[in-house]
Amino acid sequence: MRRRRFSAGALLAAIVCALAIASSAQADTYWNVWQGNLPDASGVRHKTTLYGGPPGYAWNIRMSWTYGAHGMWFLVITNDGTWHQYTTASFGDPVSSNWDLVFAYGYNAARGGCQNPGTLATVYVNCRNAMTY
Amino acid sequence: MALISGRPTAASAGPLPAPSYAPSAFVADLAGQAKVGQLSVLTAAGKGDSTVAIVTGRNASGATCWTVTVLGGQAGNHFRCGKAPEPKGEITIFPDISGPQGSTLATSVSLVGLVRSDVASVRATLVDGSARELPLTNDTFGYAATERSLLPTAVRAYGELGEPLGEQTLELGDGPPSE
User: Fold this and answer.
1) Which residues of A touch B73 (CB under 8 A)?
2) Which DSSP letter does residue B165 get?
3) For chain A, which has fewer Cβ within 10 Å, the N-terminal or C-terminal residue?
């Protein structure tokens, strides 16, 4: 009986460990666009990442930035190279955090990311993507 | 993949009347996640991937919900409920600014907008320096252009006496040059 309890405990520990690893891995893939100042040290105002999502999943770009600083842009580049910019104000709040741009299943955008527009002040940005649909 | 049906068929630039488009399948899906029904497109402008729209609906409590969709109805934000679409201040615009690969200059702008109820008229200032009146329909307006000279650089709201009430400007030369 004692041995069985130990096995159950070990199993539970293994599950917790596996969940922790999975959670960590997911977090790693979640934060894969840009964390840091925009413009960066080179003056670059935009950061994007390749869309790598499998068919059947939606793609989210989530962005948060220094609260109260100014609005930001989502940046989308479609497969033919055309770029599209959307102000975060378009999604309800010009100076806030955790704004999502959610794409349709398998939409053929090549890249998505975030941009500090124009000549506005430098802000600290968390820009990441996720397959959370 | 056309997900906003009945897109505008106007010329390459101009104000657009309030349309009666059906929300896209993707938008209906977003609405379904938020348990929002009775969807309708309040206003929309642009063509293809440049189409931008304001979509409204109601949740189970009867509260008004809305979102802005872009990329021809293939992307957007989550629905927010509790308040009808309204501007922040006198005027708010929801633009899609786009350009070709390798150029930082925008070649297309589609926008829809909301104004406060005391706004009597809205005018866009274009790249060529001219002004374009944008008709208001239920405190909304729209504009789309694909010729550089006709892109808007600012949209201004005016009161009954023609007094300026508010302004939103657009940055048209800040695209990603190296993508």
Assistant:
1) 104
2) E
3) N
